[in-house]
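Anyone opening a protein record will find just a pair of labelled lines. A complete record is shown below as an example:
=====
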Amino acid sequence: MNLLEKLDAAAAARKAQLPEGLGAFGIPIEESYSATEARIGERRVLMLGTNNYLGLSFSPECREAAHKAIDQEGTGTTGSRMANGNYYGHRALERELAEFYHCHECIVFTTGYQANLGTISGLVGAGDVVLIDGDAHASIYDGCILSGADIIRFRHNDVADLEKRLRRLGDRSQNALIIIEGIYSMLGDQAPLAKIVELKNAYQSTLLLDEAHSLGVLGKTGQGLVEKTGMINEVDFITGTFSKSLCGIGGFCVSNHPQLDQLRYISHPYIFTASPSPATIASTRAALKLLHDGYLLREQLWKNAHQLFSCLKKTGYCLGPEPGPIVAVLLDSPKQALTLWNGLMEHDIYVNLVLPPAAPEGKSLVRCSINAAHTAEQIDRVCETFSRLYPAVV
């Protein structure tokens, strides 16, 4: 099979899952009206498929900061951080993120994907070991592949399975990097961080925590799972993204290990990528301040999450393990998921469709993302629609 035939095979597999003409993936958003509503084609839809957890995408502070940066610095840097793309704003954001996490070091990357790619491939290499959760994001897995280290997967959130694999490594555990996530993006469940920290210390390993979906969501000031659990000083490296609660694009890694700064000189995803635009950096800095002070936003977010989770559970849907801003409806087949997704779209509600192999355990998902800007009335409407569709789906 040649290169193009491989692509034809992939297209055939996709067509087998998705009926002709169904644009469930990559639907263009024609207009965005707010953090909760947009236009898709001729439909004004309620957006329940974004990661806009604090609803900051239309905040006046972020928009004003972005406009000002464009006026003063233009639309792009046209170079990498190692060349001409290292602006004052990039360094300022790194200082502010380090201060936010009470860490000494921070590196800002152009995307959240590259934050994991660049950090992991810079920390470990051939002869080292990475142990990653079975539900780890693709950016984590790709970073491990790029590093050349030996990759060991342990069962999702299974501390006993992780310990078994660490024990088998013997002395190699001291050259092992354990990688977990604060909130997992598909099912919305949280990592058992305290127990994993115990293992990390017992086996003298290193721990990286990806707070992509937990930044802004967990903890009094929104640091994430490290703040909720009080483990901020026990995690070696924290990565995250600007594309969720901070409503921009970009990523970061923070640490109290001074060696983190050396990644700037060896990490290809950092060295060979143009730096984030001035507008992106400026809006992210503004959003970080709002996130830090956003206790009431987090309170509203969790109130909304519990409202939707409780309603869908009572209706009879099979859901992820716990309430949170990601509410995943698990279905046994792609056909069921497509039926539900289509039904919701016909009622002007947009959610994410996730099919195998992206969905865990061979299931199919309809994935809902709640944010702090959703009103109780909007969630009631979503609940009513899910309830109406239930008999036709399950």
Observations:
- The radius of gyration is 21 Å.
- The first helix runs from residue 3 to 17.
